[in-house]
Design goal:
540 residues, 15 helices, alpha/beta
């Protein structure tokens, strides 16, 4: 059988292992269910193409073992004995349809064409045919893969059948290694930059494979198998508007309700630090303020910075709160092999998914750590199942981890954070993982006026400039009772006006920050005009 021969003669040990395990699952399924009671769900994509040829090889080997004839009893895989289901859709690419029908002709596939939605089509098919198990080309990382095993009963509310997933643990690299080594045909769209194919309405070539001829503006795309980071295979799926971006936030501060946020032009982030040592006062967190400045430099407002315990439930609760409130959540601390390093597991729990082995991530770890990081004991290679995207950059020894709108940073000091941030910005420019906007601008003034003198004019100024969101008038404890009456307001979103003292004996610092420099100029001039000339001096 040509597939089995090609794989066993290749030099790719990893592919051989994946192939052997997949064939075992297929043979196990064929031992449990008669061939008349199994089916293949085929959609013309790369994963189902791999599965088609694995099933051809698996059926051949299973028949050979049954007849104990060394493979001669079967027809060499020329015909395909398994019923195949194809859900034909008017939104499918013509190339997908053409490839599917061509494959059916070449391999003599008994194909049922269904023109209903997936659930209704299955109900009708299973009612008319005694199908008990369906082979699916699902892989970990697919949206539908969460919670599935190699053998998984159908979900409640669906027709009863066994889902068989022979390539569940295969990576993007494994899929293309198989297709190229086996030299089988696949849909032509993959040779033109498509890396993950949905419908004609939500799929475009992957921009990471785009090349431009210096003599013309024409865009060309490299083949899908040249995509360097397989976790970015879905970058060609058209992005939907995030509900987090479109939402309207409301905050109440000192009795004032702020609802003037233009969320179409403003994105917010929260920062979570994980570490009992910070809460105990053993060490000081120095990364939070640095990360705030970096986010401001790309136009993002930081809504909150929190510190939580090295506890899975504590991390999960904090992530659960912030992932709905903000457009992006950055979390660091608690990353590593120790019992207290629970950040990744906490993120998984916040999204309601389990931790599963990620072989691509384990490969990166093995290059970094060597033999100390291998086999089933490598818990550091367990990542949230089905929601993880690896952010790979040549300057990073190990990719960063992104789970939906949560980015897990591994930095432990400012130098490492600088490097990881620079890599994130480069990746943001190429694949849009982080939207880059106009940075915040600010003006600072120093005054010897007392806090009480400044408080009321500053509050009136905030009402006059509602687009400059009022920040917090920060003061250090003082003996005079009037300081307890000063207004307290939450953090900056569109911009903020506030003040602070570096020392009770020193000057009061008033800061204006936002994105519209002309508005900041107007607000600062208005404040200065409320007092005698020279009351405020501009500082850097």
């Amino acid at each position: 059988m040509e597939i089995d021969k090609a794989i066993r003669e290749c030099d790719d040990r990893r592919l051989k292992t994946k192939y052997t395990n997949a064939i075992y699952v297929i043979k196990r399924a064929l031992a449990l269910y008669p061939v008349q009671e199994v089916a293949l769900s085929f959609n013309g994509g790369k994963d189902s193409t791999v599965l088609l040829h694995l099933l051809r090889a698996g059926c051949f080997l299973h028949q050979a073992e049954e007849f104990n004839s060394g493979g001669d009893a079967a027809d060499g895989g020329k015909t395909f004995p398994i019923r195949t289901i194809y859900f034909e859709s008017p939104s499918a690419f013509p190339e997908i349809n053409s490839f599917t029908y061509e494959a059916a002709s070449i391999y003599d596939i008994q194909m049922d064409i269904i023109r209903l939605d997936f659930k209704s089509g299955l109900e009708a098919l299973l009612k008319a045919n005694p199908i008990r198990a369906i082979f699916l080309g699902v892989r970990i990382g697919d949206p539908t893969a969460v919670g599935q095993e190699q053998f998984s009963p159908s979900s409640p509310g669906w027709p009863p059948f066994m889902r068989v997933n022979p390539i569940l643990d295969w990576s993007y690299r494994d899929v293309w290694a198989f297709l190229l080594v086996s030299k089988v045909q696949y849909c032509s769209l993959y040779d033109h930059g498509y890396t993950s194919i949905g419908s004609i309405h939500d799929t475009v070539p992957n921009a990471l494979l785009c090349t431009r001829n210096s003599d013309s503006s024409e865009e060309k795309f490299k083949p899908a198998y040249l995509l360097a980071d397989g976790r970015l295979e879905r970058a060609g799926r058209a992005k939907k508007n995030s509900s987090a971006v479109c939402r309207k936030l409301s905050s109440t501060s000192n009795g004032l309700k702020m609802e003037n946020l233009n969320s179409g032009s403003m994105l917010t982030a929260s920062i979570i630090t994980v570490g009992d040592e910070i809460l105990f006062g053993t060490v000081e967190d120095k990364l939070g303020s640095v990360l705030c400045k970096k986010l401001h430099s790309i136009g993002w407002a930081v809504s909150r910075v929190t510190v939580t315990r090295n506890d899975i439930d504590s991390v999960a609760e904090e992530v659960e709160r912030q992932k709905y409130r903000d457009d992006m959540v950055f979390i660091y601390g608690g990353i590593g092999p120790l019992h207290s390093d629970v950040t990744v597991a906490g993120v998984a729990k916040a999204f309601g998914v389990r931790m599963a082995p990620d072989e691509e991530f384990e490969e990166h770890l093995s290059h970094l750590i060597g033999e100390k990081c291998s086999g089933d004991k490598n818990e550091m290679a367990l990542l949230p199942e089905g929601i993880t995207e690896l952010l790979h950059h040549e300057q990073l020894p190990v990719p960063l981890i992104k789970c939906h709108n949560v980015i897990i940073l591994t930095a432990t000091n400012a130098v490492e954070l600088d490097r990881q941030w620079d890599c994130l910005i480069e990746l943001a420019k190429s694949n849009g993982i982080l939207e880059l906007m106009d940075p915040f601008v600010s003006k600072c003034f120093a005054t010897t006026l007392s806090d009480v003198e400044v408080a009321q004019p500053l509050s009136k100024l905030c009402a006059q400039f509602p687009d400059l969101y009022i920040g917090k008038l920060i003061v250090f404890p003082a003996a005079h009772p009037t300081f307890s009456l000063l207004p307290v307001v939450t953090t900056c979103v569109l911009g903020y006006e506030g003040g602070y003292r570096e020392s009770r004996e020193g000057p009061l610092i008033i800061t204006f920050e936002g994105k519209d420099l002309s508005r900041i100029e107007a607000a600062s001039q208005s404040l200065c005009q409320k007092f005698h000339p020279g009351a405020f001096s501009k500082i850097k």
